[in-house]
Amino acid sequence: MTRSALYIPAANPRAMEKARGLPVDAILFDLEDAVAPDAKAGARDHLARALEADYGPRLRILRINALATPWGADDAALAARLAAHLDGVLLPKTAGPQDLDALAALVPGLPLWAMIETPQGVLSAPQIAAHPRLHALVMGTNDLAKDLRCRNRADRLPLLSALGACLLAARAHDRLILDGVYNAFRDTDGLRAEAEQGRDLGFDGKTLIHPDQIAIANACFGPSEAEIAEARREIAAHEAALAAGQGIAVLDGRIVENLHVETARRLIARAEAIAKLQL
Q1: pLDDT per residue as tens digits for the range 93-104
Q2: Which of 28, 111, 177, 259 has the fewest CB atoms in 10 Å of its CB?
Q3: Distance, CA of 48 to CA of 187 (rounded, Å)
Q4: DSSP H helical segments within 183-257, as ranges?
Q5: 10 Å Cβ neighbour count for 199?
Q6: Closest by Cα among 100, 148, 142, 101 to 120
Q7: Taking Cα atoms as reference points, which of 148, 174, 172, 171 lies closest to residue 161?
Q8: Looking at residue 90, what is its pLDDT?
Q9: In degrees, to the nearest 5, what angle opens at C-alpha 204 toward C-alphas 105 and 118?
Q10: Residues 6+ apart with CB under 8 A from 53
Q11: CA distances to 111, 163, 262, 265 from 179, in Å
């Protein structure tokens, strides 16, 4: 259950401590973009101390630097050492399954998360999603937009084909997939619109850059009370139809079949999982 995933700079001990009390589903401890080159080593030390604390039910994911950088190997070694305190390792700019193979050899046992933020990553998304150690895809829409040289539009029209391709890959292999960040963190209306778009496309949740964005992401990617009630009505109508010897039901003038019931049950299961988080 990952409606919201917040990037936290590993160089900021206070932010990492504060994250323990935030109602976020996942924390992405960041050693990459959020940490200056001369602060990388210190950030690893800060992170090691921070992870000694209890983060409750929140997923603890470490975003390392790419293995080809001067810091990637040390980051991966830290992840391996802290494996008992982590739920996954996020690899930036994943270009293909060979990148995951290299990381998998360095962090045995840890679930792998892959950032898709380059054209090559998008084109390789099916092979990346098929990797046996992969748990999740994470869209890096800022870097992807830069590489595509596309215009920044509120409707994200230039990115829709890439977002759709990665969604297809994730669903084909039953992987979690998170939408990219929304940069204007004080623009709540813009964030809500983009989160709703991501939800409607099929994303499981959204990556975030500021704690103030958590509530909107959680609301958009979690079922509403009305949706839960409608799901229960669909299940009840279909069960009544089956009891009457019919294969389909009619509810409010529309057909309810097995596929609708499956979707309804998944929605209710999602709501129950959210309720158990108690963040």
Answers
A1: 999 999 999 999
A2: 259
A3: 34
A4: 188-201, 214-221, 225-243
A5: 19
A6: 148
A7: 148
A8: 98
A9: 55
A10: 17, 20
A11: 19, 8, 24, 24
Which residues on neighbouring strands pair with residue 60, listed in sequence order?
27
pLDDT above 80: residue 279 = no
Of 112, 87, 86, 90, residue with least CA distance to 101: 112
Q: What is each CA distance from 38 to 71, 74, 83, 140, 259, in whole angstroms?
A: 11, 14, 25, 24, 54
Give the pairing type, strands 254-256 and 249-251. antiparallel
Q: What's the pLDDT tens digit per position in 6-48?
A: 999 999 999 999 999 999 999 999 999 999 999 999 999 999 9
Q: Which two tokens stand for residue 21?
A: 């009390």
Give the span between the Cα atoms of 126 and 132, in whole angstroms: 12
Torsion sign across C-alpha atoms 149, 152, 158, 162: positive
What torsion, rounded to 10 degrees, do the Cα atoms 223, 226, 232, 236 define?
Answer: -150
**How much is the mean pLDDT over the chain?**
96
In whole angstroms, give the CA distance from residue 247 to residue 257: 7
User: Given a cut of 70, is residue 142 above it in pLDDT?
Assistant: yes
| Helix, strand, or coil (residue 212) | helix
| Residue type at 255 in one-letter notation | I
Amino acid at 204: D
Mention every residue, 6+ apart, whose C-beta is less than 8 A from residue 88.
Answer: 59, 60, 61, 62, 110, 111, 112, 113, 135, 136
Tokens 């009544």: give the residue.
Answer: 240
Please name the residues in contact with 115: beta carbons below 8 A apart, sequence gap of 6 or more.
Answer: 63, 90, 91, 92, 93, 94, 121, 137, 138, 139, 140
